[in-house]
Amino acid sequence: MFAIFFSTANLFATEINQPVLSQTRFIENKGQIVDQNNLPNKAVKYLFHSN
């Protein structure tokens, strides 16, 4: 129980210390996106990332 509380408290502490910046961007797929068979998924061209 202590480990769960500590990890949760640590998670909130890192979120509080982070500046509030809205970062949205597209990341080009250069082979890092894979399918369920762990093969590169060439159908995905970009990955959308936002906070």
Topology, element by element:
Layout lengths: L1 H16 L6 E5 L17 E5 L1
Antiparallel strand pairs: 1-2
Which features does this protein show?
2 strands; disordered N terminus; 20% strand; alpha+beta; 51 residues; 1 helix
Q: TL;DR of this structure?
A:
The chain has one helix at 2-17; strands at residues 24-28, 46-50.
Strand arrangement, largest sheet? 1-2
Query: In angstroms, what separates the terminal alpha carbons?
Result: 29 Å
Number of strands: 2
How much of the residues is beta strand, in percent?
15-25%
Helical proportion? Answer: 25-40%
Q: pLDDT average, as an integer? A: 75
Question: Biggest sheet: strands, sense, closure?
Answer: 2 strands, antiparallel
Counted by DSSP, the helix tally is: 1
Q: Give start-end ranges of low-pLDDT stretches.
A: 1-9
Question: Which sequence of SSEs, written as H and E, runs from N to C?
Answer: HEE
Radius of gyration: 17 Å
Question: Outline, from the CA principal axes?
Answer: elongated
> Helix/strand/pairing class, anyone?
alpha+beta
